[in-house]
């Protein structure tokens, strides 16, 4: 029986994103050869190649602290050598595949997510010349962008797992409401997913994030009656943060709105729900199914 779970199906390939970064770097840096891979356990497995001439680097496994890339992975910072084969600062475990590609100058940049190296990208020259600061910075910025994408995907996986666990443990029907702690967790989840979607560069990932957000909303409101108050999407968003105990100033900062605009939204919410306080608004919104 297959062990593939919903997170596996939803998560776009990190390797595909790495390869896209390498292709983009080829155009922006002009480096003749670029390659990279993702980290599995303590090892880096090469899986993306641009400008290679043979199969010397195909699926090569780079051990932590071995070679230039292994050192970059272990130290979590860019490392470079202008004359690879003469360098005394790295081990030479991978001289044969490097030499097979004719590489003489090499730069390795780790992709670090929350203190853990998740991938690495290399840029190389077939002449023993230093790789300049401008090109190095381009690889570093690309590594940061890739790290951000992986971090977003990690959070999606975590939220999908939450959705599966809540769905398995809590049945909502016949008017029964979710426990408050579960309800707050769902509210927090879909609000955070919305923020992540806004920062995602991948349209496919953004679409998947939105789909998961909708599922979380639906899980929280299942079994509740049709709402009589009709809040706009922005009002629902503001109300979600109110439900989490956020003050107006914090909501304004999170949503990049002015404090007065947030106050106006809150007033509209109270009026539409026909209540007189923020607490009453949350209670009534949950009763109607406007909030989980």
**Helix content range of the residues, please?**
40-55%
Please tell me the CATH architecture of the largest domain by its name.
2-Layer Sandwich
**Termini gap:** 34 Å
Instruction: Please state how the strands of the largest beta sheet are arranged side by side.
Output: 3-2-1-6-5-4
At CATH level 3, the topology of the largest domain is: Beta-Lactamase
Number of domains: 2
**Approximate shape:** elongated
What's the CATH first level of the largest domain? Alpha Beta
Write down the Rg: 25 Å
Structural class comes to alpha+beta
Low-confidence stretches are 1-9, 166-178
Q: Mean pLDDT, nearest integer?
A: 81
Layout of SSEs?
Blueprint: H1 6-10, H2 14-29, E1 33-40, E2 43-50, E3 61-63, H3 67-75, E4 79-81, H4 95-100, E5 105-113, E6 116-125, H5 133-169, H6 180-199, H7 203-221, H8 233-243, H9 248-255, H10 259-273, H11 278-288
Antiparallel strand pairs: 1-2, 1-6, 2-3, 4-5, 5-6
Helix pairs in contact: 2-5, 5-6, 5-7, 6-7, 6-8, 8-10, 8-11, 9-10, 10-11
């Amino acid at each position: 029986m297959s062990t593939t779970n919903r997170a596996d199906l939803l998560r776009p390939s990190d390797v595909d994103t790495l390869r896209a970064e390498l292709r983009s770097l080829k155009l922006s840096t002009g480096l003749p050869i670029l390659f990279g891979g993702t980290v599995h356990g303590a090892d880096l497995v090469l899986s993306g190649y641009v400008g290679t001439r043979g199969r010397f680097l195909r699926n090569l496994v780079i051990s932590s602290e071995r070679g230039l890339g292994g050192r970059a992975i272990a130290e979590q910072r860019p490392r470079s050598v202008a004359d690879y084969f003469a360098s005394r600062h790295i081990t030479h475990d991978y001289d044969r595949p490097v030499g097979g590609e004719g590489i003489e100058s090499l730069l390795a940049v780790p992709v670090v997510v929350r203190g853990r190296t998740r991938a690495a990208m290399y840029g190389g020259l077939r002449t023993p010349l230093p790789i300049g600061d401008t090109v190095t910075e381009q690889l570093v910025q690309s590594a940061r962008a890739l790290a951000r994408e992986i971090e977003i995907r990690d959070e999606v996986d975590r939220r999908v797992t939450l959705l599966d666990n809540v769905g398995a443990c809590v049945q909502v029907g016949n008017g029964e409401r979710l426990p408050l702690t579960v309800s707050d967790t769902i509210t927090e989840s879909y609000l955070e997913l919305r923020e992540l979607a806004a920062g995602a560069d991948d349209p496919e990932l953004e679409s998947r994030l939105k789909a998961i957000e909708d599922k979380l909303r639906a899980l929280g409101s299942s079994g509740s009656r049709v709402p009589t108050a009709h809040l706009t999407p922005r009002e629902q968003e503001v109300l979600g943060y109110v439900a989490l105990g956020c003050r107006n100033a914090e909501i304004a900062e999170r949503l990049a709105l002015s404090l007065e605009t947030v106050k106006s939204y809150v007033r509209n919410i109270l009026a539409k729900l026909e209540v007189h306080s923020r607490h009453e608004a949350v209670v009534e919104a949950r009763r109607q199914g406007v909030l989980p």
